[in-house]
Amino acid sequence: MSAVLNRASRNFLWRHPWQLVLALLGIALGVAVVVAIELAMESALASFDQTRKAFSGAATHRIVAGDGGLDEKLYTRLRVEQGIQQLSPIVSGYVRRANDSFRLIGIDPLVEKSFQSAWQKQYSDVGFLARLIAEPGTALVSEQTAARLHLKVGDEIMVEAGNGERRLKVIALLSPSHAISEQALSGLIITDIATAQEVLGLYGRLSSIDALIDKDASDTLARIRRILPANVLLLSADDQSQAMREMTRAFSINLKALGLLSLLVGLFLIYNTMTFLVVQRRRLIGSLRALGVTRRQVFQLIINEAFWLAIAGTAIGIALGIMLAQGLLHLISGTINAVYFRLDAASLMITPVQLGKGILLGLGATLLAVLPPALEATRLPPMTVLIRSQLESGVRRLIKVAGMAGGLFIAIGLALALWSGKSISLGLVGIFLLLFGFALLTPVFTLMVMKLVERVFGRISGVLGRLPARMVSAEISRTGIAIAALMMAVAATIGMDLMIGSFRHTVQEWLQGALRADLYVALPAEKTPASASEAHRLKAKLAAHADVQMLSSLLAVNLIANDALTRVSVYELNPQARRGFVFKQAAGTVWDRFEREQTIIATEPYAYHHDVKVGQTIMMRTEKGQQPFEVIAVEADYSDQGHLVMSRRNYGRYWPDLGYSGIGIYAKPGVDLKRLEDQLGQWLKPPQSIQSNRAIYKASMGLFEQTFTITENLRWLSAIIAFVGVFSALMALQFERTRQLGVLRAIGVTPVQLTALIIGETGLMGLVAGLFAVPVGYVVAYVLIFVIYLRSFGWTMAFYSNAAVVYQGLALAFGAALLAGVLPALKMARTRPAEALRNE
Amino acid sequence: MPTEAAVSIQKLSKSYEESGRRHQIFTDLNLDVSRGEFIVLLGRSGSGKSTLLNLISGIDPPDAGSVIINGTDITALSEHGRTLFRRHHLGFIFQSYNLIPTLTVAENLLLPLELIRPLARADRDKVATLLDKLGLADRCETYPDRLSGGEQQRVAIARALVHDPDLILADEPTGNLDLETGSQVLALLDTLVKKAGKTLVMATHSREVIGQADRIVSIRDQSLVPVDERCP
Predict the structure, then answer these.
(1) Which DSSP helix (H) or strand (E) runs through A22?
(2) Are A748 and B115 in contact (CB under 8 A)?
(3) Average pLDDT of A349-373?
(4) Residue B188 maps to which CATH number?
(5) Are A743 and B79 inside 8 Å of each other by CB?
(6) What is the domain range of residue B210?
(7) How sure is the predictor about B232, in pLDDT bands with cuts at 50, 70 and 90?
(8) Which of A466, A747, A749 is opposite residue B92, by nearest beta carbon?
(9) B77 touching A, CB under 8 A?
(10) Is omega for the bond preceding A687 within 30 degrees of 0, making it cis?
(11) Three-state SS letters, A722-757
(12) Are A347 and A41 in contact (CB under 8 A)?
């Protein structure tokens, strides 16, 4: 490639710095959003995974039971009777100190060296691990945790679990050798097994047993399985990671789809910018071709330029993405904590693979976007490269083809969205095809609207009034892309707003129906047999209060259902509480069978994800062997990813009494609820708490809004990218039209009229984008509600239309376009006519 | 024959800056153009012919001096005032036609009228008549990029005249045309401008035009000097 040719290309960019900036911004923003989501999501999941690994060391398997834990005799049997040496018992739970929550882990410090985790190996020869056993009530914390709590060796800390307050003496501070250990150890208190059992009230119980078993030692696995009680599971480490990833798969896919939406909008922006860069230089390209530069050289010139832009844009995008990921990680961890599982502090982990993905995406997307304009420039013979009208007439032919292709994409997208089974990815591909199809239809729609506008406005406001619409139509190759990008972003916003609105409405109705009690008492999450008696005493006291009419109760436990650890809500329900249940499917008289027979209710997401229908049987592992429970109903529930509902009577037949997680209080008519809440509140010891149904409703809705914070932020990013696209298109258009606008000024058009013309044009572009985005947004919302969210979370919700969302969408499109037009309009209005006329 | 001064240029100076250096185009330029007079501006490329036309029309402000058109000192007017003055009193013809590509031929002609007053039936009739005179009656709904160079220039001349201005400024109107088409355009200018008693200032290199002018001036060494090309 000739150095002079490259210089000609480079000089053009240097002389149009804002175009260079916009081109880089287009690439950078698209890459940044995708990289940020990928980094934040992977970091959140990896931190969970690595924290587990940092503690389980080389463990290949884990033996777990439902809530209530394992009998510690199982460990002895495995080790002594079966001679399996590489086992590590673990007792874990959460304890509180003031307003902080810590994970307490009880370990066996004398576990075999080959089986120790990284941090244990680091301290295995130091001796204080052995002191944990020798001195009861001793603990280890990391240096970071100690610094945070202002602790030093020898200090005592008071911690509180379900079993009352306990004093622990810090005998050493752990200094993690690398970042992962640091993360694994932060917020942890480490003790020996006996101390942990005492603090957590898990006397004679273990939370799990880690095992190191050779891949080939299938007989060892078989031996373990043979002696495991029915209510105990043997899981491989891979199974656990897989299960965690599976649980958050839908969330992850949805987030990545949002990132890809930004990239798709960004792709239009890159295409738009690159097209402008080519079109604006058609005279230069024509001259070069006339001088003997071959088509291949012109193509190489453009691709070469795009390549360097892509490199620079991607580098900026990755840097921006890393910054953005820091913020997103906090939001994503929050959502995972709220909706899926407990996730302790996560830190951003940047791997070469993730960065590689970002680089590939930035380079690939830019080169893909520049291909059409590069080919367009090389296909034209030297003279026609100079003629603008020929270019536009070529584009008009292309618009017809694009319109037909758009129709096809929409049909395929709809088919894929509606008839792709339970696949979330295919459903999302369907939405993308729909959006892309509608985007391809945008120029045709724009031309139709402009014709109409021209007719109407032409009659009212004459030749000048017709000009904005004419300008949009005449340069449809430029305006069409900008309108399509804006339309996509606004349609996605309308679609998501309608979906979130419908979801909010559905959840509000569900919560209002479900929260039947006047007051709710929340009890500690850690359930132990020891804490159960205290909970029973409290319940009896509450029931005896003069102002309390009746109670209901909930115990949230993890049990093994169909060979998987499953959350089960165990209820004692009164007639009023039962009215809060909304059944999606039910067989006969549900409540009678729920109480009297061995039956169970599945929540809608559980039924969807596990393909469970009314009448089917779920096998529950109990200490008395596997027990069949018939599914008698599927109830609406939007609280989690799915659980089962069981009567307290059924639970009591097979599982240990673990007390209650919550107690619903129904006051007698006419009772002052505030006073009752205050009175009962005085009976409670932290972390027990009491809240009115109104407060719980508000907190739940707050949590709901929190889970959509990421969605909100990401779609705003798409809108910003689209805005940059429109702005870039308008700036480039005005640049192209400088001379034409100079002529208007020369024949007597004032700067104000010129500004009005440009603003009129951009307003029309926004209006078209908004008008088209409304129906497209409704289609997107429909697919999101009835396809994506159903497949992702198993929730069905009603579609609620909202006129405000439509107006907001229109205003967003119109406002963004108007705003994007202000600077070009002012720039043109300020340009002296003589200067504009000199421009070519 | 010319009777009184339609344009009076007094002590006009103009310079521009390039790469931090100031280039003087002309200094203390003086010129009086009588009403109905046809003046040709000569000068080498880059001598400032187009700049002088821009200064006369008010689309570029001078560094010093004044331009008085029909008694109005346009250099004393604001930008807005100059625009309105141009709208009412001037017609501009460019070398590269500069028709508005997004307006049809008829709309290009209606635009200057619409800028002055709300369009009336009479305006549309006037445009139709003018186009008929130019032999473009059948092209009124055509967009400029479908016309030949000669046709476009004819439309540009019509646009400069349609609102009946006092002064026509033409910047190399035949520069982009072949000899024959150029002659046709000149003939048109002769009919529509000169015979209608309009004042015309034209920058050109065309010898054919020079032969038709009432007076010829040339920009040399930053000054205007009279030229008598017809003298042997």
Answers:
(1) helix A17-56
(2) yes
(3) 84
(4) 3.40.50.300
(5) no
(6) 36-47+77-227
(7) very low
(8) A747
(9) no
(10) yes
(11) HHHHHHHHHHHHHHHCHHHHHHHHHCCCCHHHHHHH
(12) no
Residue of A nearest to B88 (CA): A748
For chain B, counts of helices (H) and of strands (E): 7, 10
Selection from B11, B56, B35, B83 nearest residue B170 by Cα? B56
Nearest residue to A82 via CA among A187, A196, A219: A219
The 10s digit of each residue's pLDDT in A220-272 is 888 888 888 877 888 877 776 666 666 666 667 767 777 777 777 777 777 77
β strands within B88-214, DSSP E: 90-93, 167-171, 199-203
Count of beta carbons in the 10 Å neighbourhood of residue A753: 18
Q: What are residue A665's DSSP bridge partners?
A: A519, A551
Asked if A463 and B119 come within 8 Å (Cβ–Cβ), the reply is yes
Question: Measured between alpha carbons, how far is A724 from B64 in angstroms, rounded to an integer?
Answer: 43
User: pLDDT of A315-343, one tens digit each?
Assistant: 999 999 898 888 888 777 777 766 666 55
Which DSSP symbol is given to A515?
-
User: Is B86 an 8 Å CB contact of chain A?
Assistant: yes
Q: Distance (Å, rounded) from C-alpha B23 to C-alpha B222?
A: 11
Which 3 state secondary structure label does DSSP give A334? helix
Q: Considering the entire predicted model, what is its pTM?
A: 0.76
Contacts of A279 (CB under 8 A, 6+ apart): A373, A391, A477, A478, A736
CB contact under 8 A, B107 and A750: no
User: In this structure, what token pair is assigned to residue A761?
Assistant: 């044009």
User: Do A463 and B114 lie within an 8 Å CB cutoff?
Assistant: yes
> Does residue B160 lie within any of the structural domains?
yes
**Domain-embedded: residue B207:** yes
- If asked whether residues A403 and A509 sit together in one domain, one would say yes
Closest chain A residue to B112 measured between Cα atoms?
Answer: A747
Q: What is the pLDDT of residues A199-212, one digit of tens each?
A: 888 888 888 888 88
A546 and A476 in a single domain? The answer is no
Distance from CA of A17 to the nearest CA of B (A): 18
Q: Report the C-alpha gap between A639 and A793 in whole angstroms.
A: 10
Alpha-carbon span B165 to B176, nearest angstrom: 24
Please tell me which of the candidates A467, A470, A834 has its beta carbon nearest to residue B59: A834
**Bridge-based pairing state of the strands A164-174 and A138-142:** parallel
Q: What ipTM is given for this predicted complex?
A: 0.81
Which residue shows structure tokens 């969605």?
Answer: A711
Q: Give the nearest partner residue to B112 out of A747, A750, A837, using CB atoms.
A: A747
Q: Provide the sign of the torsion angle of the four alpha carbons A421, A427, A433, A437, taken in this order.
A: positive
| CB distance B27 to B222 below 8 Å | yes
**Domain end among A687, A717, A739:** A687
- Interchain proximity B86–A464, CB inside 8 Å: no
In a domain, A660, yes or no: yes
Dihedrals φ, ψ of A769, to 5°?
Answer: -60, -45
Option in A739, A751, A834 nearest B60 (CB): A834
Q: What residues of chain A lie within 8 A of the CB of B59, using their CB? A: 742, 745-746, 832-834, 837
Closest-approach residue (CA) in chain B for A741: B100
Same domain, A729 and A673: no
Can you give the residue range of the structural domain that contains A293?
Answer: 1-53+245-386
Number of independent structural domains in chain B:
1
Comparing A824 with A382, the larger pLDDT belongs to A824
In a domain, A236, yes or no: no
Rounded CA separation B151/B154 (Å): 5
Measured from the Cβ of residue A126, the count of other Cβ atoms closer than 10 Å reads 11
Is residue B54 less than 8 Å (CB to CB) from chain A? yes
Tell me which chain B residues have a C-beta less than 8 angstroms from the C-beta of A834. Answer: 51, 54, 59-60
A chain contacts of residue B156, beta-carbon cutoff 8 Å: none
Q: Is residue A88 left, alpha or beta, with left meaning phi > 0 and alpha meaning psi from -120 to 50?
A: beta
How many structural domains does chain A have? 4
Q: What is the model's pLDDT at position A384?
A: 47
Q: CA-nearest residue of chain B to A748?
A: B87
